[in-house]
Amino acid sequence: MTTHIQHAEQLSTTTLLRFATAGSVDDGKSTLVGRLLHDSKSVLTDQLEAVEHASRSRGQEAPDLALLTDGLRAEREQGITIDVAYRYFATPRRRFILADTPGHVQYTRNMVTGASTAELAVVLVDARNGVVEQTRRHAAVAALLRVPHVVLAVNKMDLVDYAEPVFAAIAEEFTAYAASLGVPEITAIPISALAGDNVVEPSAHMDWYGGPTVLEHLETVPVSHDLTACHARFPVQYVIRPQTAEHPDYRGYAGQIAAGAFRVGEAVTVLPSGRTSVIAGIDALGDSVDIAWAPQSVTVRLADDIDISRGDLIAPADDAPAVTRDVEATVCHVADQPLSVGQRVLLKHTTRTVKAIVKDIPSRLTLDDLSQHPAPGQLVANDIGRVVVRTAEPLALDAYADSRRTGSFLLIDPADGTTLSAGMAGASFAAAAEAEPGAAAADDAEWDF
C-alpha cells in the first residue's frame, strides 16, 4: 500500500508531455514506440506474452514490438499503422501521452488529429532512404499545427553501419527544411529502434554521438503548461441560475478557462456583445477563490446583469480579441465528402456554434514542395488549404499562432453533424505571410448574411 501511495505522489509531482510520432511507411514508428514502452518497463507481462506468441505464430524469433501499438487487425496483417493509437506511460521523471500516427499519404488527417494537441513530434527517417516526400509532409504538418518541439529520429542506423556522415547529411537537410517552415526547435538523434540503440539506453555502436537518447530528451525537453502567460479567455459553457431560497439571486457563468488567468475585481468584456463588467466572484470546487487559471473549470460571477449565454467569451477588457464574421484560416479536410465554395456549414469555436458559408478556397497547399495550387474550388480528404468563411454571427477568434485553444475551430456538416475540416485561424506557417483571399462566392439564398 505504501508503495502505491508513494508512486501516486511521485506521479502527481511529475510533468506531462503529449507527443506524436510520424514518418513514412516502414520507417519503424511502431517499433520505436514498442521499444520505448518495452525498455522503459511500461509493458505488462501479459501484453508482452501476447506479442511474443503473435510473433512466433508469424515465424519471427524475436518479439515484434510494433505489435504493442498496431492494435487493429488490418494493421497487424499489413504491417502498417492505419489509425492513431494512443498510449500512456510514465517514468519517475515525467508522464507521457503518446499518439502513434500513420505514415501513409491518405492518412494525413490522422496525423493532424494526433499532433493537434502534441507539444513534441518525433519524425522518423529511414537512414537508408534519407528525407523523402512524406518526411517533408510531416514536418509541414507539425509546423502548421505549431508543435513547439520536433525530434528527427534517424532510424535503422544499424543498416548503414552506424555511419556518422549518413546521419549528419540527413540531419542537415531536415533541419534546414523544418527551420524554413518556422519550426522553433529541432533535435536530431541517430537510433536503431529494432536493436534499441539510443532509444532508452545509449548506443555502444555510435560513440561519435554525444547527445541524449530519445527517452532522455522526452524526459527533459522543457514543456510549458503555463497557460497563464497567454491571453486570458473564458468560453461560457453553461449559465447557472439556481433560483432557490438559499441562492435567490445567484447568476454564475460556468466553463473551463481556455487560457490565461482571471482575478476577482478585474474588468472584463463579454463578446460578441462588447458589454463590460467586473468579476465579482469566482467559484471553484464549491469554494470562492480570488484567482483562477487555465485549464481550471470554474464559475464566474459578474457585478452587472448582462445577457450572457453559452458560446459567449469573457476576456480582459484591455486584452479582448477582435470580433469578426469573416474568418481566414488554414484547414485540414478530414471528411470523405469534399468541401466546396458556397457550401453551408456550421462553425464550432470553443463552446459557440454558428452557421457559416464557405466564401472562397483561395488555395490548396501542396505539402511535397509547399507550393500553393490556386483556386482549387474544393478540398478533398487529407487536403490542406486556405479558406475564407463568412459566419452568420460574429466570433471572438484569436490567431492560431497566439492560442492553439481559441484559434482553432471545426467546420461541421449541418445535415448530419459530420466533422468536415479542422481549422487554424490566421497565417499558415510561422515564417509565412497571410495569404490573400480571392474573390468571394455568392451568398446562398437560405443562409443570406
In short:
This protein has helices at 2-13, 29-39, 45-57, 73-78, 108-115, 133-144, 164-180, 214-220; strands at residues 15-23, 85-91, 94-100, 120-126, 149-155, 186-190, 234-235, 238-240, 252-256, 261-263, 267-271, 275-284, 287-289, 291-293, 297-302, 313-316, 323-333, 339-340, 344-349, 352-366, 371-374, 378-379, 384-396, 408-412, 419-425.
Radius of gyration over C-alpha positions, nearest whole angstrom: 24 Å
The tally of helices reads 8
Task: Give the oligomer, counting copies of the same chain as homo and different chains as hetero.
Answer: single chain
N→C terminal distance: 63 Å
What are the low-pLDDT stretches, counting only 5+ consecutive residues below 50? 1-13, 72-82, 432-449
Structural class: alpha+beta
Residues in β-strands, percent? 25-35%
Main sheet characteristics = 8 strands, antiparallel
